[in-house]
Design a protein that fits this description.
single chain; alpha/beta; 350 residues; 14 strands; 2 domains; DNA polymerase, domain 1
């Protein structure tokens, strides 16, 4: 069986140089090609106009470009944009552009579906089908960057890996995408503007701490009591809070960057004083800050947004102990673009 052409973006610069030399082209063409791929985010080989027509034809014969595209864009009343991102094989993920008065943030996906079964998350109800490639992750950022300039007149300022999937279960592709997004010969974004969010996988967090890329780490926590966290996040049964904390302490020791805990308070589940005190004690163990996130309904009666008094109790308990805490208001809820709501529902709408 004849092999399918390789994606041109999968080649390293060295591999590209070797290929070019094998067809009688000067090695410096590799730098030109990579400039088109990663700095200019070219969507097709024929657009690489400083290459000869013959070279473009040869590249098109031997390789493919498989860019992700936006097949549908929805705009929320608050200005948030949700994108249905169609991949080369027809599968779809979603990404979000979140604007404020001072920044525009891209929320990008790393997997088609998710296998972690977090009970409160709509994405978890989708079958996990595959990981995204570095190029597909890169495309989401490049396309949202174009949206930011078009809709809001300014470049993209921040990126969060908080879309569909668990980034650390697609470790290599996510890291390669971040390298291309932050490289001077890529999109050139500052690493400190990027946050990778995880459910908390200790082994991968330890590995991540060794990466010299300089991005931030967020952990989707939602309870600092093992029994409760295991109820809503099955991953906690094999990666308990104590092991997670050891990995986070190693992260801070090696990087010097504090952790962000993402935390939703639900009525009747984790809205008691004992829950707030448990979170306070957990935060004491490593430099961290807490984002209290509004719950976004996914049609499950087990989960209901906590009363404002309960959320304020968390704020008071944490601030009294010196922990930075912010209440994060939901954006894009009316188009199912808010945290935990990404489930490709836009595909079912007219």
């Amino acid at each position: 069986m004849q092999e399918s052409p390789k994606d041109l973006r999968r080649l390293s610069e060295e591999e590209l140089r070797t290929y070019l030399e094998s067809i009688g082209e000067p090695a410096y063409r590799a730098r030109q090609i990579r400039e088109w791929l990663w700095e200019k985010a070219a969507r097709d080989i024929d657009s690489m106009t400083n290459l000869s027509r013959g070279l473009r034809q040869k590249l098109s014969q031997d390789f493919v470009l498989q860019p992700a595209t936006f097949s549908k864009v929805q705009r929320s009343e608050d200005g948030t944009l949700k994108n249905a991102v169609r991949l080369h094989d027809g599968l779809v993920v979603e990404s979000v552009l979140i604007p404020t008065s001072t920044r525009t943030t891209a929320c990008v996906s790393s997997q088609v579906g998710c296998a972690l079964d977090c009970q409160f998350c709509a994405t978890a109800r989708l079958k996990r089908q595959r990981n995204l490639s570095a190029g597909e992750i890169f495309d989401q950022v490049a396309l949202i960057g174009e949206q930011s300039r078009s809709f809001f007149g300014r470049p993209l300022s921040n990126i969060v890996f908080m879309g569909m999937g668990e980034p650390l279960l697609n470790y290599d592709e996510v890291l390669e995408a971040i390298r291309r997004i932050t490289a001077p010969d890529g999109l050139g974004m500052a690493p400190r503007r990027i946050t990778v969010s995880t459910v908390g996988l200790p082994k991968q967090i330890r590995r991540l701490a060794l990466e010299p890329l300089g991005f931030g780490l967020a952990v989707s926590l939602h309870s600092a009591i093992d029994a409760k966290r295991s109820q809503i996040m099955p991953v906690n049964r094999t990666n308990p809070l104590s092991e997670l904390m050891e990995a986070l302490q190693e992260w801070y020791r090696l990087t010097g960057r504090r952790i962000t805990f993402e935390y939703v308070v639900w009525k009747g589940f984790n809205d008691r004083l004992e829950d707030a005190l448990a979170l306070r004690d957990y935060c004491r163990k490593v430099p961290s800050k807490v984002n209290l996130i509004e719950y976004n309904a996914i049609g499950d009666p087990r989960f209901e947004q906590a009363d404002p008094d309960s959320i304020q109790r968390y704020v008071e308990v944490l601030e009294a102990d010196g922990t930075v805490v912010k209440i994060r208001r939901s954006r894009g809820r009316d188009i199912d673009a808010a945290c935990g709501q990404l489930a490709n529902r836009s595909l079912d709408e007219p």
